[in-house]
Amino acid sequence: MYAIVDIETTGGHASANGITEIAVLIHDGNHVVRHYETLINPGIPVPVYIRALTGIHDGMLADAPEFKDVASEIYELLCDKIFVAHNVNFDYSFLKHHLSLYGFDLQCKKLCTVRLCRKIFPGLSSYSLGKLCSHLNILNDSRHRAAGDAKATATLFTLLLQKDSSGYVNLLLNGKLKEQQLPPGLCRDDIDALPSTPGVYYFKDSKGRVIYVGKAVNIKKRVVSHFTGNNPGRQRQEFLKNICSVSYEPCGTELMAFILEAIEIKRLWPSNNRAMKRYEQLYGLYSYEDQRGYSRLMIDKRRKNSFPLFSFNSLSEGRNILMSLVRKFELCPKLCFIQVNNDPCTGISNHYCRGVCEGNELYEDYNARVAESISYLKVSSPSFLLVDKGRNNDEKGVILMEQGNLYGMGYVPSAHPVTDLGAVKVLLNPCPSNDYIRNLILDHASRFPWKVVSKSKEEAIAVSNIQPEFLV
């Protein structure tokens, strides 16, 4: 038995909206054998745009039952049936969420008439219920009302059962076709075209605008994973509703996919990517001149519109690097805020501070060493290649770091020598660099030193240890 369902709601996601009307038609595979419908008081005002669309207003719902009053009856209607709806995931997510609030766990097999129509009536310009009714001469004299749309869906479903010579209904019910998990606007062909390789994928809306960029070790598997579950939240429901196509860019490795994703999010600024937009490292190395004219180095939290000399993931990372500068260039730990108590300077007792904190050094001499330390920090950042798998056996994936920043990445023929950084550089696509990308690459280089090609033995050691004295 099938339960053909249509609901009207106060909004597009279940977690913050209510149901205003429901119709359930029980279908035995040939025709409707039972009809249930009721208005429901959602307990919140009906928004103006919903009133305009459905004609349902607060006055109509004042004396209607609340959902808790009909939850048991609705559950009994649905629990042992196959749940059928036009864009089934919307109706199912609403009812599953609201039934769960009153102790009912809805677990039904689902059928989506949008998906069935795409299989049985391929090639139509639109699969909205209104356009399908017009194309197939199905009468619907009460559009955007639960009873009218449910009756039209029941007529459509009867026709689909009659035309289903390929057995798509059974394939969907038995899990042979996973199409019902897909957003209503997304074609199965887009999913079938995806590779099971590393890369970056792009979800696009009906106008072709990119609304989400993601990375994956297995593009197809990761894309499909977005469509599992029944999360009733606004963000997920709006996201799924707007997906109309997906494209991809293959990458040789997961690292290259990570980098490309970060670049593309900054370039395209998709509406559904949030975490990467907000990413920035928490601490920075800053320089300023105090009232006496002495240059001061310090590690501090990064703040909006601040411009640190270098950035770090953690306070300890920054302090370790600053301490290395202090020792190498004989700077004062007190002037660098490493020692913040009133005790005698530890730098003097350990023979690397020249006594600037006690007035024993002119600011010109001290500032010169501070400037030298900053210059050294910049030029000491390593330049190297990361050489790894390409997109196929005929190529290698290459990432070039210059002085601690990403220059570019790309693919070179497998037979091409990679010992000369300059010769490889001309074959790569330049890329923007930032703290996130730089640390991804440096961390990868430290974990896989055999992938590193450097200009000198010293830099190779520095990269493999990821502890050259001043590596950022």
TrEMBL record:
GO CC list: cytosol
UniProt GO molecular function: 3'-5' exonuclease activity; DNA binding; DNA-directed DNA polymerase activity
CDD domains according to UniProt: DEDDh, GIY-YIG_UvrC_Cho
Ranges for domain GIY-YIG: 196-274
One BP annotation, GO: nucleotide-excision repair
Pfam families: GIY-YIG, RNase_T
UniProt xrefs under PANTHER family: DNA POLYMERASE III SUBUNIT EPSILON (PTHR30231), EXODEOXYRIBONUCLEASE 10 (PTHR30231:SF37)
Quaternary assembly: DNA polymerase III contains a core (composed of alpha, epsilon and theta chains) that associates with a tau subunit. This core dimerizes to form the POLIII' complex. PolIII' associates with the gamma complex (composed of gamma, delta, delta', psi and chi chains) and with the beta chain to form the complete DNA polymerase III complex.
Known function: DNA polymerase III is a complex, multichain enzyme responsible for most of the replicative synthesis in bacteria. The epsilon subunit contain the editing function and is a proofreading 3'-5' exonuclease.
Descriptive protein name: DNA polymerase III subunit epsilon
